[in-house]
Write a structure and sequence with these properties.
Helicase, Ruva Protein, domain 3, two-stranded antiparallel sheet, globular, alpha/beta, Dna Topoisomerase Vi A Subunit, Chain: A, domain 2, homodimer
């Protein structure tokens, strides 16, 4: 669609690069910004500049933080150092943490293995994970990756690499490592009528005794 | 949702003020921006600054432009000055213009009358429209407003004000003014099964001989 206004077209183009924002939505957003008081434009730019200048990756788990070194989750004294949960993206941490079911530390891979797209083990934060597991007193790993092909591939590869590590506890004995992944099954509130057969198959395999 | 990162929370809050963007979408967008190369953040801020500094309202029709005075539509020599199309928002112009069915000038009201929200005739660009119709050789007005209560109210009020004007042609005779609004009916490709009874009623009333 021709706008006849180059600076407006530029804004529409930039907004259309955001996920889930097509050209029509981008145009609606750009016009909304134009109609809003100038202060909104200023505040939005200041917020963008804020994240650019302040937010960086945590030195230990690679989640986002604006602390000097370690993130909120790595600094929290109420969490155990013995369990870590492996996620693909920093945003996944919020989802998992609000469930309240996990109170350990995290590790963000920043991607999943995808041989078809040329994403190999060196392209995600896997090497630092292996070093971290060797160095820290970790005894449990939960792989919280998406239930798709890339997520499964990454989970299996990561588990294999972890099992190959030679871990020692503080007293010099061999340190065991429990590795698990999230359960597959029917989501809470889910209707069996609408589930695909693979989900139902997994839910039956992993059935829980009552 | 708690982010534990104040600058990220600020960005999520600003993005959530955009139309159609809820807190979850805002969070997804903010994380996407964080994961993108820093150049994207820079380009988006530059584009926002660009529209803030360059785009303003056209002195004649109040659509948006970055020209010194008049907009693309007002400067176009191929358009007739005798027909003007009244719209609520500058974005409506693009939609109407790409239809190719209208090649006159535009006038943007920047809002519709809404007594319940305290929006009266002084709050929209109605007075400049009346002056413009008196001054320019306009002979046809098309009211292209939304088919809702505010749009209908604004169309009826505007038509009444326009009919009250005392217009003279260049030769000193009375200048007639044809006033119309967009037709209501079944949208192209629309399924009668899914139309509400008021639309069907209008489509029957306004039926076209074949």
């Amino acid at each position: 669609m021709i706008q006849h206004i180059p600076s407006l077209e530029k804004l529409v183009n930039e907004l259309a690069k955001l996920p889930g924002v097509g050209p029509k939505t981008a145009q609606r957003l750009a016009y909304h910004i134009l109609r809003s008081p100038a202060a909104y434009n200023d505040n939005l730019r200041a917020a963008l500049e804020g994240v650019k200048n302040s937010v960086h990756e945590c030195a230990r788990c690679f989640s986002f933080t604006e602390n000097a070194d370690l993130c909120h989750y790595c600094l929290d004294p109420k969490r155990t150092d013995e369990s870590i949960c492996i996620v693909e993206d920093p945003a996944d941490i919020i989802r998992i943490d609000t469930s309240g079911a996990f109170r350990g530390r995290y590790h963000v891979l920043h991607g999943t293995l995808s041989p078809l797209d040329g994403v190999g083990p060196k392209d995600i934060r896997l090497e630092p994970l292996l070093e971290r597991v060797t160095r820290e007193p970790i005894r449990e790993i939960i792989l919280a990756l998406d239930a798709d092909l890339e997520g499964d591939t990454t989970a299996l590869y990561t588990a294999k690499q972890l099992r190959g590590l030679n871990l020692t506890a503080q007293d010099g004995t061999r340190r065991p490592l429990r590795i698990s992944r999230l359960a597959h099954g029917i989501p809470i509130g889910g209707d069996i009528d609408y589930m695909d057969y693979r989900t139902i198959g997994r839910a039956i395999e992993n059935r829980v005794e009552l």
